[in-house]
Structures are given as C-alpha cells and as structure tokens.
Amino acid sequence: MNLKSILNLALVFTILFSCGNENSKKIEGAMAYNETAEFDFFVEQFADVKVLRYEVPGWDVLTLNEQKLVYYLTQAGLAGRDIMWDQNYKHNLKIRKELEHVYTNYSGDKSSEDWKAFEIYLKRVWFSNGIHHHYSNDKLKPEFSADYLKMLLTETNTDLDSDILEILFNEVDTKKVNQGKGVDNASLSAVNFYGPDVTNEDVANYYKTKTSPNPEKPLAFGINSQLVKENGEVKERIYKSGGLYGEAIDEIIKWLELAKGVAENEAQANALGLLIDYYKTGDLQTWDDYNVAWTNATEGNVDYINGFVEVYNDPLGYTGSYEMIVQINDFDMSQKMKVLSDNAQWFEDNSTLIEAHKKENVVGVTYKVVNVAGEAGDASPSTPIGVNLPNSSWIRAAVGSKSVSLGNIINASNKASSAGRTKEFVHDEEEFKNHEQYGELADKLETALHEVIGHASGQLNPGVPETKETLKNYASTLEEGRADLVALYYMYHPKLQELGLVDDWEAVGRASYDAYIRNGLLVQLVRLNLGDDVEEAHMRNRQWISAWVFEKGQKENIIEKVTKEGKTYYNINDYAKLRDLFGQLLREAQRIKSEGDYAAVEALVEGYGVKVDQAIHTEVLERNKQYKSAPYTGYVNPILVAEKDDSGEIVSIKITQPKTFAEQMLNYSDQYNFLPDVN
C-alpha cells in the first residue's frame, strides 16, 4: 500500500521527517505571471489556515504540445472537483451553493462581526471541500448564530432546507471520518461512502463475497463505489459514466481524450486510453491495467495523478477519494535524487526486517522531483508534498511504483515559513543551529526515503490479504508509520554521504531525529483542540513512533524529557541508540503488516498513538499562542489561459495567478459545476 505524505506545510520543517512568459498580458481578476518579478507567495490567512500561491518553474521549457497536455489534464481534474465535495458529505454541494449565493448577493452590513465570521466560515468550508475540517475531520463550528444565517438567507432569497441548516449548528454528523475503537465506524462517519443504514458488518460481509479472477492480483474492490442499502440489501453505486457522478465523469473523459491526442509518447497515450476506458466502465480490471500502464510510462516531461486514489477518508479503507495533480518534471533535482531509486535494493537488503519480509527484487521504483501545474479534489487546497503510487501491493511488487516530491509546493511553503515556532520548541541553541543548517535538506531526504524506499519496502506473507482487510481502520497509520521508520532508520547512516547526498550524515541525521521527536511529542499538538484524541492517520503514526521509542529508551535515557522554566522539551542523548530503536520498531511494524496482525496494530496505535497528555497539550497550546502563522497551509492554483486563433486552435497558454482565495473558489464553482446537489 502506498500512501501520500499529507503533511502540514506550514510546519514542514518540524513535521516532516518529511517560466512564465514575460509577455503575458494582464488577465482581469488575476495577476499575470512574470518569473523576473519577485513572486508574492502569500494570499491570506484565516482561522487555522494560511493560503499561498506557488510558482510553476519550467513552463517555458515545455513545447506547445506539452503545455496543451498540461492544460487538458488540469481541466480534466477540475471537471471532477465536485465529486470530492459530495464524497466528503452528502449535503456539501447544497450547502456550498447556498452559502456562495449569500456571499455574492448580500448587500447589508459587511462590517459587523457576524458577517466577518460568516466569511471565515465559508472560507473554511472552501478549504476543507465541505463542512468538516480537512485534517481533524471534526465538523466546522460557525462563530455566528443560526438566527443570523436565517437573516442572511432571507435577505438574499436563498433557499437552504431547514433540516440542513440545523446540521450546521447541531451535533448531527459531527465527524467526517470516525476511526474510534469499538464503534461502528461506517455508520458513525459522515463521509458519503456508505448509505445511512450501512454498518461495518454490512461492509465486511459484502466484500467477502467478492473474489478476484487471479487471487495473486487482487482487484481493488470498493475503490470506486458507494455502498447503500435498498430493501435491506447492500448494493454498490459505481462511479462511472452513466453511474454515480456520471455527469462530472463525462467531462473528465472529454478532457482526457484531448490529452491523449497530445500525449508525449505511445506509453503515455496508452495509459490515458485505459484511464478513459475505466471512467467509462468502472471496471476494476481496467483500473489495474491502467495502473500498470501508468507505472510503466516513465518517459516524458509531464505526468499526472487522476482518479479515486487514496483511502484515508474511508474509515474502513476501501473507497478512494477523487484527486488530480498535474506535474512537470524538475529536470535538475530529479537527476540528483535518482540515486535513491537506483540503490533501492541496497536499502532493502540492509534493513532490519525479518528476512522473509524483505523483497528479493525491489523493482521499478522511480523517483522524481516535480513542479505542480494544477491540483483538484483531495489534493487541493490542502496538498501533499510527496506521493507514491499505485497503491496496489501486487503492482508495486511486480511492476513497481512512481514516487514524486512536489518541489514547487515545498519551495512555496519554505519561502512563507517562519523559524519562530521551531525555536520555541527546540531544546537548546545547538539543536536550533543544526536545524537551521541542515533541516531543509533533512526534510527533502526524509520525504524521498519515505516515498521511494519506505513504501516500496517489505512484502506480505503468502496468503495474507491486503492490509485494508487485515488491519482495517489501522491500515493507513501503520503503512505511513512503517514508511516513516524506513526513512528514519537510514537518515542517520553514512550511506547517505557515500551516495553523495549529504556532506555530513551525522549532522543531517541529528536534524532529522530532533525534528521528528520534537514534532511527534510536542509541536503537532497545536493542531488539536484541548481534550481531543489524535484521529488523523499521519498524526497518529508520528505520535506512536515517538512515544514508543521514548518509552523503550527510558532505561538508557536515550531521549530525555527536560523541564526548563516551566516548559517541556525532549533532548536526544544518543542518536545511534535511537536509530536502533527505530530499527526495532520498523521490524515489528513490517511483521504486523506482513502477517496481518490486527491485535498487535490495535495495541500499538491505541497504546501510543491516540491519547494525549493533557498537561503537555495545555502547555503546548499556551506556548503556541505567540505565533500568528496558522498551523495549516493550502494553495490557490495558477490559472492556465489558452489563447486561440480564429479557427479555435490553441496557439499559446499563459499562466496567471488568482488575486484572492474567494475569487478562485467562486470561479471554480461557476466553471466546474457538473453535479446536482443530491447524488
């Protein structure tokens, strides 16, 4: 199983382990792109979010046909944007439509605190692709009253059903994804992958009836469907042309066909053809055939991710969320980082895994640094910084995978970040100076090791099903933690210097370990409300790893908990021994995955990754109050403007930038609105 590193870009240094045409003319409502001018990354900040822009280096290096390919792929992705909204919650599209109607039509007092609160609430809904927080999964709480909203609806002649309006303020559907232990996760999650009467037992029983033609190549049952009950019988509604979300999928197909017509090579065109066939039929064998073809299509300057991909939003790990990322190769950085994929077998052979759990032949691991040209669905506005696909274990073992690091996204976050929060939580000046010198490099290497080596490492025991079946609601956090542990184990290793990736492997390794422990035990708590458990898969894995090694190393004081002037810090006293602990936990994490040991993963995650020390949490939140920078970061996307001649042929494509977050969101709702309110 692969998984993308969905990470807080505002805290990228502490949380990770880890062009334009000069003659572009001014486009109304956007800023023309000019790489010679100083780029303005910052858009705005509200609630717990800041919104940035990102540059698109390398645009002018592309041929016109390659630019057309990027344009068509981006349009295809945006065409499916509303699918993600509806997947997140069944009322999201109706709520967004009516809130936007209020926003654009209200002519009353816009200086009041209530109106400002309404604006912030709408922006939070836009950012999260719905009414549940993009990271915590909690329902967003309006800071205005229901009576005020009713007044706005009346003043603007906006029709929002009273029962839906009440949901914004009551305790119904409070959790988009409920990963709780001992509860019915399907029925208690507001995410729209399951009908209202579908239970965990229903899901398990339904998929037990599904068998793959070739058991050694299991199909991704559930990846592109919603399960509902009709007259007591569980049925699938397939995402496809003519099926669920068919109106938007037909638009996706239209743009993908145009993209296929300007493909860079035959392999790329064949993959696009299979993706089109998959969208037309919803056939899971075609989905696997597409993923094999896409994985093998490694030549060219343009690549993309499009489909129902990651299963984080499904509490039971079956259904994929819609997403799109269009990528341009970063020619210089990809060559530098290719060395990791070239040495993937060495890392596998020298890991701490049980011999039976190691792959004899790590195949097809390709790693590139890319620059994003557009994103949609689950990847926008909150974006990953690294992606490793496909998710199918058998494809990864037999064919390989693609790993990418989103270089321009990382760069934008770095340019807009501040060192203040880091300085508050480092143990001493020596640690901070090492972070300043090596933190950025450590982040990049950790991301690369996590994606290229981590997700490609290890294998299941013969006959053990996919982790979504064996580890269930803990599958995602176990997989992300396992990939983190691979990266951590090698971040403090001279091999990195031998390969020419660093000039001081010990200093880079110390920066990596300091940041991981600092974040896992302290800094990431700024994302939680006091009293909350840790719910999100990546946050859980950072905590269970950090808490486990802290506990196991106490006898030798490997990591020391220090209190200075009433503030808590964690100081690593022995980096080599900490590496050994990471190696031990890596071995166990892979064993759990390889054997499908549900009892062990439950004990690991629940014992170390869920509960929060309330005294520490209170302290962290108090220390964090001094920093105005929001803990979460997202992005507006550049606007690709196709200029045509009299015959309608595209003659050039310009890049512009949106001025505001609201401008882009309203524009998207207007241009890419292909689904009904209820699906």
Quick description:
This protein has a domain at 9-81 and 244-635.
List keywords for this structure.
679 residues, alpha+beta, five-stranded mixed beta sheet, 26 helices, 14% strand, disordered N terminus
Q: How would you portray this structure in words?
A:
By secondary structure, the chain is an alpha+beta fold. The protein has a domain at 9-81 and 244-635. Helices cover 45% and strands 14% of the residues. A 5-stranded mixed β-sheet has the order 6-7-8-10-9. A hairpin with a 2-residue loop joins strand 4 and strand 5 (233-238). Helix 2 (64-79) runs antiparallel to helix 9 (246-261) and helix 9 packs antiparallel against helix 10 (266-281). 53% of the residues are buried. Residues 1-36 have low confidence and may be disordered.
